[in-house]
Amino acid sequence: MFGFKKKDPVAKLRKEYEACMKAATDLQRTGDIKGFAEKSAEAAEIEKRLVEAERAAGN
Question: pTM to 2 decimals?
Answer without folding.
Answer: 0.82
